[in-house]
Amino acid sequence: MxxxxxxxxxxxxxxxxxxxxxxxxxxxYSIAAEDEVGTAWVNPGNLGFNPDPSLGLWFRQxxxxxxxxxxxxxxxxxxxxxxxxxxxxxxxxxxxxLNSALxxxxxxxxxxxxxxxxxxxxGEGNNFVSYDLGVGWRPVSYVGVGGTLRNLGNPAPALGVxxxxxxxxxxxxxxDVLEIGFDFEDKQLEQDPTYAGVVxxxxxxxxxxxxxxxxxxxxxxxxxxxxxxxxxxxxYDLTDADGSGVIGHLTSGIGDERLAGLGSRVPVIAFDRSFxxxxxxxxxxxxxxxxxxxxxxxxxxAADRSVRGVVLKLDATPFSYAQMAELQAAVAELQxxxxxxxxxxxxxxxxxxxxxxxxxxxxxxxxxxxxxLIGLSSELMYFKGVFDLVGVEPQFARRAEYKSAVExxxxxxxxxxxxxxxxxxxDDLFAHMLESVSEGRDIEIEELKGIxxxxxxxxxxxxxxxxxxxxxxxxxxxEKIEEVIDTLHFLDEDYAMVDTNTGWxxxxxxxxxxxxxxxxxxxxxxxxxFSGGSAGADTISRALMQAAxxxxxxxxxxxxxxxGGSAFASDNIWRAVEKVKEEGKPVIVSMGGVAASxxxxxxxxxxAIYAEExxxxxxxxxxxxxxxxxxxxxxVGLNTELFTRGRNAAMYSVSRPMDxxxxxxxxxxxxxxxxQFKERVAAGRGMTMEEVEQVARGxxxxxxxxxxxxxxxxxxxxQDAIERARQDAGIGANAEVxxxxxxxxxxxxxxxxIERVQALFRPQIAVPELPEELAxxxxxxxxxxxxxxxMSPWIxxxx
Length: 799
Fold this sequence. Notes:
This protein has about 800 residues and is an alpha/beta fold. It is built from 20 helices and 38 strands. The strands form eight sheets. Strands 3-4-5-6-7-8-9-10-11-12-13-14-15-16 form a 14-stranded antiparallel barrel. Strands 26, 29, 31, 32, 33, 35, 36 and 37 form an eight-stranded mixed sheet that branches. The protein has a six-stranded parallel sheet with strand order 24-21-19-18-17-25, sandwiched between helices. Helix 3 packs parallel to helix 6 (about 415-440) and helix 14 packs across helix 15 (about 690-695). The longest helix has 26 residues, at about 415-440. It is globular, with a radius of gyration of 31 Å.
């Protein structure tokens, strides 16, 4: 992405039809195209198109008349603050101005905004307030229009501040490389309008050239040179009002664009936090980096010619095994482009952290750390003995024998089918771990098995076993990096951390929509004090329909990382996927760590399904039931009295067990739900009902086995699914395409504004996490009120 162009000066000293002593304007502005810092004085509606935080400083010195001006402005997330000072030495007069602006979004890529300016010119009683309104519309990435009404109500006509209006249009035939603008401006309907043309050219990265001229002979133009997050430039303007002048400016933003070469750099990426799919901010915590953004950063480093290598700092990484496989693929891509990857194990490194490290070119370890490469375990908990002790009777029905989630309530140990599928799953995951480490460290698999049996390891033991190359303290790491990357370089701990925006949406987009957490009816929920997040069918369906309706969205990638949940909610999401396909837009599913039961239900109708070898998927089945607390109530002296109308009206009452007729009614509903589930799979996968039944029955599969039996199309990660979506949408390999995340939730002011307000008032309070035992109950807490459940065994923790 290109860096914003931030070139502004006091408009009272830069000429133009809308010049007025209380405001600033670019010396080569465009009403439709301006959206950077200081845009509030040109068109406040456009502020919302570009949320990047920016700061600009400008100084103008007149040449024919010795007047001077200073201005400063900042913008972020559709808001702006600015200050203006100008001084006329001949009249010995000064003028101060302050402004504040806000832009909000409307449907159809329309932004509207308002700007308020407080002017304090010299002279008793001269202070006044002026108001501007603006609107911008950018229907596609190469066309925009805008309009403004300024100084409404003639606040100070005697001082030269008059009501004015302007409209404009801009064409971008080569996107950010060339913009051509056309403006029409007038004051007080004087019938003496100005017709202006604007050219903005970016011939090379890091250099901006702007020119503006009108039929009255007003000319302005100049250039800006960028040096990463800072820019400097000079502009020359020739005006009728004040004569010629030179404008110097300094600006800062968040981009990496620069005219001079970046030199060699080595990104340092720390895996020391949670990387959620849709991280959100709250009053107590800031939003962190998303998982997709992390993958995109690694992909950018692979393609960036200035990057000579990458350092990964690893600890107890918060990723599923499937996500680890995606990160391993990103490391392999870096190495394929001759960019060495160095792993640094800091603290206590887990199985997953070491799997990722093992594929790197070097593995270093903290001298006081430890390596917990100890193999895999899965602990299943059964409550039947406790229920018998206290007098609780669980009643559940299921389809079919592998649907073992209910066994935690009805059994004291796993059934033979449950034990069978868990052993098969662990076998597959362990085999993948062995293969990954064996290939990365060049250790035979049988030897590696023996090494793992000796774990965990001290640093000395890890080196002796060939798992680690050397121990280093963090301050010694840079010296070792120089041995691996022998070119002159610098470490970049913030590499590509923040995306820059051009203010224009790319006309070809791929929408990424997440099904993350238990699937429930209603709206999605973010994690709270005493609850986990959930995937609400209404929210996700709304996001899918938004993707279907947006002309710029050519395809959808549905990322599913869910153990399932409500069968009803899952079917609603499945239906929304069908509606997207009816609009002619391909839907590609990318499975994360788990996409089972309801998680597979929502994926079944997609055009293609991608999963990693270690993805936990399948579990095509349904169950339902209840707990009867009648005996417990009796023990504690609690009596209940049921009043009913209808034979089965109290079948879900927790004060007594279901009788045979009620149980048969529930079982009939489960049978219907199971059949419908299989029908969805059969239609989506091109299988017969008999073929589906052979791989269903509630059985959980690894991604590799799911590929063999036809439940998955390809083995690969999120980036592979995105590339497939590009191909199926007919987007060329070299065509520019934008990834967008659609949440299904919209706010009037937008997330950047809300985040900044929360950050301003957010207290430094550590939010406590639930104990592990209670955290295990979170998926079921989100499913209160649901009847039929399509959910995998609720606790599959591979440590």
